[in-house]
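task queued by scheduler; priority normal; single chain, no ligands, no partner chains; default sampling; output format set to structure tokens
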Amino acid sequence: MRLAVLGLGISGVAVARAAVEKGWTPVVYDERMAESPATLRNLDALGAIGVEVVTGWFGRLADDEYDVLVVSPGFPPQHPAILAADRAGKPVWGEIEFAFRIARAPMVAITGTNGKSTVTVLTWKLVSSSGRRTWLAGNIAGSGYSEHTLTDAARLAAPEDIIVAEISSAQLERIDTFAPQAACVLNVTPDHLDRYPDFSTYRATKLKLLDAVADGGTIVRIAGAPGLEDLDPARPEVIVKTIEEASIADPNLDLPAGTPPLNWDDVAIYGRIGRSNFAAAYQLACAVVPNVDPHLALQGYTGLTHRMERVGERDNILVINNSMCTNPGAVIASSQSLNRPQILLMGGHDKGLDFTPVAEYLKTQPHQAILFGPVTEKFRACLDAPHVPDLPAAFALAVEKCAKKGAILLAPGCASAEPYANFKERGDHFRDIAKEWLEI
């Protein structure tokens, strides 16, 4: 089988490597020239196993050049090569469809606008607590834990293993046979409207995950989750586990009788939203393995890098790095998880999203926002907050403004903008700034 693989990033490289192992013939296409160090490394790695790579690709393919088109998540759904494949009746697989077709191990899949990385890691830790070998995979990146592309996990995992995967909306656009054993859509709030024509299309893409769950599998839902209030995921052939508000409010989350109480003070899980995330992870884990041990799973759990990451505390001021917060819903959710007055540091590429809900939320709270770096006039006018040139200036101002027993929270609400290439660079810089202050 001849595969045309779009994208020379980590997922494209993983697909090409797996295809060679299957005896298939992949050709990798990328519209960028081979100039960056990362691209050159990937080019060399594929060249070493005999994979042809076309860089500076003009974006089109002849129908007789391939049998299946495999699309990396970075390619937009309206790309000419994808549309041409559809017209020609050629199969188009996303990365998770490809991975599922080569996998021997069952999968657990988590998506949602906010919280999916945290729930994925918690599910991975809970499944691992049963003694089963478990792979952390998918769209997750920069968590601080051992991550794999979904294709690499599918290629390497034995049939008795479990793969726990974070799944993005982009990865769900092209699925066919993908059928996880357990899945959860945590919430859906406006995001990625630079990729989708409207919110309803984005939401419908997320909900494809629930239709994909294998017969006899489990859907975990959180009652009243944002964007899913009216959702009825009932299917006669699947089990639906609903996490009710009363369970989330219970400090022990209605764990089985005889389970020792959980001590939330010892772990980086904050407030109602943190407990909700853990409850979803617990139900997902219980759906695929017996003997889940929540205490073992939480032992030494310090959260995820750049996701409500506790940097430190000085003079009763808590510093939290939530650089992965890239939409309005995430700003509100992360703020609500901390029970203290906050200074929120916000800024970046707003993706055309409406930040009115954040502005309205701040009016009802003892919190303040500080904007940093390049922002649009619309963003600045909506939030009506002090605006400083960069992140160091924002942190310095936050220290001045922060009340005792308060928190400084990096919750940008936006994708990264100059000088940061991504949320990891932004979060790393924030951590460095904060630690310098914390260690004075």
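post-processing summary
- The CA atoms of residues 357 and 363 lie 10 Å apart.
- DSSP finds 16 helices and 18 strands in the chain.
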